[in-house]
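Example record

One chain of 350 residues, shown exactly as stored in the release files.
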Amino acid sequence: MAHGGHCVVRLADGDDAGRVVFVRHAIPGERVEVVVTEGTDGDKFWRADAVDVLTASADRVTAPCPVAGPGLCGGCDFQHVSLDRQRELKAAVVAEQLRRLAGLDVSVVVQRVPGDEAGLRWRTRTRFAHLPDGRRAMSRHRSHELVPVDDCLIAVPGAEEPPLAESVTAGGETHVFAVPADGFWQVHPGAPTVLVETVLDLLAPQPGERVLDLYAGVGLFAAFLAGRVGPDRVVAVEGHPRAARDAHANLPRGVRVVRGDVGRVLATALDEPFDLVVLDPPREGARRAVVEQVVDRAPRAVAYVACDPAALARDVAVFAEHGYALGELRAFDLFPMTHHVECVALLTRG
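Predicted structure tokens for this chain:
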């Protein structure tokens, strides 16, 4: 299984022998008939859909959603795979990215998170397209073509109108966060609690330690860290203007919120030492410039929250160049029925 939810196929014979084809809707070990959806003779690889299963995996199941499959809704990659096998495939992808990009041999287990119904009804924020007749729709994979979707089975009822305030309990504390309807918030109902508790457990913050929360969003991690080290010991940096304003409102008095691009802020300010850093970057990762600014603050530990295993692995490799080793990795199935996986990595000096 490749990063991105595709099976890797190498054609065995004919003029295209050896060509790589990335195939959706298959499971490693199956024998399938595929239809090429993208690719010409001059391309390095092709894309394809498995349209007929000749030899099925024991882990193949009937997709619960009628619009999950070749040529249909592009939202779910793994509805044809049993939940246990989905998590094994995700774990294998995370391990492969760390091995290939960071040179690390890490055993990975993807954990279930409470809050879904057998992998369904977990998405609390969903945007639909609409057809000319008003019906709700989703896009086909890598296409602007729309597929009618009467009921998205991974969405909770009312996901089109998410709450404007979210309550989170973790580590014996409860905080309420204002979140705009179009703002970022973890979409699995169990995600905020499990991520906060994981970050607190890995970092083990102590009273008086200084904490830098980067890509802080509306203040999820900063709020709970402030309760452990003291509000005046936490600095949160967020680039999105609306999220930074919400963080000001959400966080306890004393927490400093800095609005601005993380890379530019670290290059020009906050150059004093910090004991702990939380990194929760967008999908492309923190990247070298930000990682080098982080290690320049000499934290004793960094908690890196990652939604993309390849970006995480690249950044872990940069941390290693500067003496920070991957101490622990935890992975969570926050996006069942899709190829996506969330990881929290602990990086420590020495």
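Notes: DSSP finds seven helices and 17 strands in the chain.
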